[in-house]
């Protein structure tokens, strides 16, 4: 294989990688947390400035309702907004500008082998997120997990409810950029302290019985 063929193959691979990262049409794919400006030409009453894509992937359009934005290119969202607005505007001309791109990082912290931040561009389930961090240090000891969402809502779950597919009682939580997974450190028993407090309780019980 000559140098020209190799160079051509490398360029083709780079082109494929870029298209995979940006979407099939070469456009940036809108994500949760992105901030958008939507301009409806000659109709400022339908234009929006600094609207944020919510954690559910939708934008709230006053007077129209929710419009799905996450996972769409700006061209696809433009077409969707035009279709929604054309109920009120004849032949609307819509332009969408991405003002701010949300940091696409998922945090996995606590009792895992490689705690840190991991880049995600779509939702990942809980077990996949834990795998990114090298898994839980000791699966028998890591029992409680706290999930803090990008909107600051919080939920605490028991790992055993999700680990065994045959006995899984709940669907695996899906995590997105901006979320944080914290695996609680196991509470190892300090037997010296336990022995001390047990002795103290026995002594207090003996004194109370003596005082009766």
UniProtKB/TrEMBL annotation:
InterPro entries, per database record: Poly_export, Poly_export_N
Keyword Signal (UniProt): yes
Keywords, comma-separated and alphabetical: Signal
Signal peptide from the UniProt entry: 1-23
Family annotation (Pfam families): Poly_export
Gene3D superfamilies: Outer membrane lipoprotein wza domain like (3.10.560.10), wza like domain (3.30.1950.10)
Protein name from the UniProt record: Polysaccharide export outer membrane protein
Residue span, Polysaccharide export protein N-terminal domain: 24-98
Record GO terms (molecular function): polysaccharide transmembrane transporter activity
Lineage of origin: Bacteria, Pseudomonadati, Bacteroidota, Bacteroidia, Bacteroidales
